[in-house]
Amino acid sequence: HVELVESGGGVVQAGGSLRLSCAASGRPFHTTVMGWFRQVPGKEREFVASVSWISGTPDYADFVKGRFIVSRDDAEDTGYLQMNDLKLDDTALYYCAVPDSTREWTTVADANDYDYWGQGTQVTVSS
Fold first, then answer.
1. Which pLDDT band, with edges at 50, 70 and 90, does 29 fall under?
2. Could you report the per-residue pLDDT of 79-126, keeping only the tens digit for each?
3. Cα–Cα distance list, 46 to 33, 37, 97, 109 (Å)
4. Using CA atoms, how far apart are residues 79 and 51, in angstroms rounded to an integer?
5. What is the number of alpha carbons within 13 Å of residue 125 lying toward its C-beta?
6. Strands (E), 1-127
7. In the chain, what percentage of residues exceed pLDDT 90?
């Protein structure tokens, strides 16, 4: 069983930055990818970014390209989402997620392909 604990959310003015962290527990921790998603009330959870746990290769939704940076620290079993130039539309509950180690394939932008989720951390961008 994997537990994910997120931190780093908060209230920030438009144009500001936040860094979210996602710490995994349940050693040994093995995953192929960590995904970041966000959700606002009344809307479906949407893909934000992902990072290959093996290579560190990132993948981004178009609306965050050039603003967000996803990374991971393999030694610390922690993933990060650096969010810069935040916009009002970035206000949401942000989640990190990983697939179960038994999954043979994960479509990184598909929330249904992730099995373990953090509790979510609220990001609010104010004008």
1. confident
2. 999 999 999 999 999 999 999 988 888 899 999 999 999 999 999 999
3. 16, 5, 12, 8
4. 8
5. 18
6. 3-7, 10-13, 18-25, 33-39, 46-52, 58-60, 68-73, 78-83, 92-98, 116-117, 121-126
7. 88
